[in-house]
Write a structure and sequence with these properties.
Blueprint (H helix, E strand, L loop, with lengths): L1 E6 L6 E6 L2 E7 L1 H4 L17 H11 L8 E4 L18 H18 L8 E3 L2 H10 L6 E7 L6 E9 L2 E9 L4 H11 L8 H8 L7 H7 E3 L5 E3 L19 H29 L3 E5 L6 H10 L4 E4 L7 H13 L18 H11 L9 H10 L4 E4 L13 E5 L6 H9 L8 E5 L3 H4 E2 L12 E3 L1 H4 L11 E2 L2 E3 L5 H14 L3 E6 L11 H10 L4 E4 L2 E4 H5 L2
Parallel strand pairs: 1-4, 4-5, 6-11, 11-12, 13-21, 15-19
Antiparallel strand pairs: 1-2, 2-3, 6-7, 7-8, 9-10, 13-14, 14-20, 15-20, 16-17, 17-18, 21-22
């Protein structure tokens, strides 16, 4: 059977397609529209239909809207409590009315679709399915934590053979995600977008406000928690756009981060006590906090922790489709990886370069050629295969660089136009990772955990070592991505270093590059030395010497 999933209610509009229980395509609308997180001026930023992403998912599978057996919309307006706590009084009624009309809107956007085919899937059920059904386990505990859904901000449950038992949820207004969003805004960043900047800033501070936050944010012992109103200005003044953060701001970020981790550990312990499961699967925006994920792995009761790569709201499109497929009796299979977006043939990529009229070459050994460029300390834009689903660049739409040059973190932040306190990440062969990195999981293909960098390696790969001695690694499997594995091998042969810097192929405020035009625009507008577009290599000197 064929099920399309849609997220279009808060932010990160996305679409995903599941055919006969298998995930075949998934993409965020921002990759097509070029509006990051689907953001527009309020109130419309929250309600952008993923028309382009949905149409592409169907095209990828050779389907028409009328071929679908169902469409999952990852929000159920009937669960909203009118005038309830935690709601935005300005827009809640309008948002609920929009959600109720979503089937009609989708039928207009996808001609041929019967609006009666659209089914509402509760927001946190969609999040849970995106973890528990997409993960490679028949049984797992599942923990969902985000800003908010219809009326709750959290779900704890147990998946066994595809069936979910909900064990706990937390009613609004109490929300760990909204707490973190409020702090993000207080620190001068964009809420529901820049929370990862707060996580990075936390590494520069000390949690000296932790005692006070423990009185305001605390677990209740029944699988839930409380978040009392917090006046962040008591600890550090609010920052306006462009204002410089101080030690107080870093300490506040460190304190909130530490308290988030402590509460998550308590929730995980309660959930393990109820399920006895060996594996914990996670989704929801809070699950993108890779520092907290590592602490759950290292100190929590579960043997394994698996986080869905599009854990934010975009992932509810995937979860909604999987939920309907399972309910229809399809044998749902784990997601094959994060490379679920658009891709182009070698011939199509060559045609793009011909249209752009840039000189290019097709080397006989692409991995060796690019490794030589990286060894010479050149920045490489790397565009290969199908695009990633989720916020992390995983070797499909990446900027690569030499990890041994201590200036390369600053250099890449300059290329991307972002804050200098933000780290860049290493890509490493899975079998080489334990030699360099400790504490986190041995396998981290989706870059959703941080690892301690072993002391003897910190001076050898300084570009990827954060101020606290950690790195957010991506492990590469030979059988899964042979080209990346060969690139890493060739780079190590030349430099003695088994890791390469990997950050997303984009500049500040713009979505990750998705199609060849995006890659060419990024290459042309930023100080990138080499563009690798499929099998083709474009050198900056050759382009601008013409």
């Amino acid at each position: 059977m064929r099920f399309l999933g849609i997220n279009a209610i808060f932010h990160d509009p996305a679409a995903a397609l599941v055919v006969d229980g298998e995930v075949t395509a998934a993409a965020e609308e921002e990759r097509f529209s070029r509006r990051k997180h689907g953001k527009r001026p309020l109130p419309f930023s929250a309600w952008e239909l993923p028309e382009l992403a949905a149409a592409w998912c169907l095209e990828q599978a050779g389907l028409r809207p009328e071929d679908l057996d169902g469409v999952a919309y990852s929000y159920d307006p009937e669960l909203v409590v009118p005038g309830g706590p935690g709601q935005d009084e300005r827009w809640e009624d309008l948002r609920t009315a929009y959600a109720r009309r979503a089937p009609d809107f989708l039928a207009t956007a996808l001609p041929g679709l019967d609006a009666a085919q659209v089914r509402f899937v509760p927001h946190h059920i969609a999040h849970a399915a995106s973890a528990g059904l997409a993960a490679p386990y028949r049984e797992s505990a599942v923990l969902v934590c985000d800003g908010r859904g219809e009326a709750v901000s959290h779900l704890a449950g147990h998946y066994r053979d595809g069936e979910l038992t909900v064990l706990a949820s937390q009613a609004l207004p109490h929300s760990l995600g909204l707490m973190y969003e409020d702090l993000t805004q207080h620190l001068g960043f964009l809420r529901s977008s820049d929370e990862y900047k707060v996580m990075a800033l936390a590494s520069y501070g000390e949690p000296r406000f932790l005692r006070e936050l423990r009185d305001l944010v605390y677990p209740t012992g029944d699988g839930g928690f409380r978040v009392e109103p917090i006046d962040w200005s008591v600890y550090a003044k609010a920052l306006g756009k462009g204002e410089r953060w101080t030690a107080d701001h870093a300490d506040l970020a460190a304190s909130a981060q530490a308290r988030l981790e402590e509460v998550l550990l308590d929730l995980a312990a309660w959930l393990h006590g109820r399920t006895g499961a060996r594996c914990l699967t996670m989704a929801g925006g809070v699950a993108l906090n890779c520092v907290a994920n590592t602490r759950l792995f290292a100190e929590g009761p579960f043997e394994e922790v698996w986080v869905q790569p599009a854990a934010g709201d975009s992932g509810t499109a995937l979860g909604g489709a999987l939920h309907l497929a399972r309910a229809a009796g399809d044998p749902v299979t784990p997601m094959p990886g994060a490379d679920l977006g658009r891709g182009w043939s070698d011939e199509e990529l060559g045609a793009w370069l011909d249209v752009a009229r840039v000189p290019y070459e097709r080397p006989a050994d692409l991995a060796a050629t690019v490794a030589a460029e990286l060894a010479a300390d050149r920045v490489v834009a790397w565009f290969q295969g199908r695009a990633e689903y989720g916020p992390r660049a995983l070797g499909r739409r990446s900027l690569l660089a030499h990890p041994g040059n201590p200036r390369n973190a600053e250099r890449l932040n300059d290329v991307k136009g972002r804050e200098q306190f933000r780290p860049v990440a290493p890509m490493v062969l899975a079998e080489r990772a334990p030699m360099i990195f400790g504490r986190g999981p041995a396998r981290s293909p989706y870059m959703l955990f941080v690892h301690d960098v072993r002391p003897e390696w910190r001076d050898r790969i300084p570009a990827v070592v954060h101020v606290d001695g950690t790195a957010r690694i991506q492990t590469v499997e030979r059988g899964r991505d042979g080209l990346l594995a060969r690139l890493l091998e060739e780079f190590e042969r030349r430099t003695g270093l088994p890791a390469v810097v990997n950050t997303s192929l984009n500049t500040a405020g713009r979505p990750m590059a998705d199609d060849p035009r995006d890659a060419l625009e990024c290459f042309g507008s930023a100080p990138v030395d080499v563009l690798v577009l499929g099998p083709y290599v474009v050198r900056r000197g050759a382009v601008f010497a013409r």
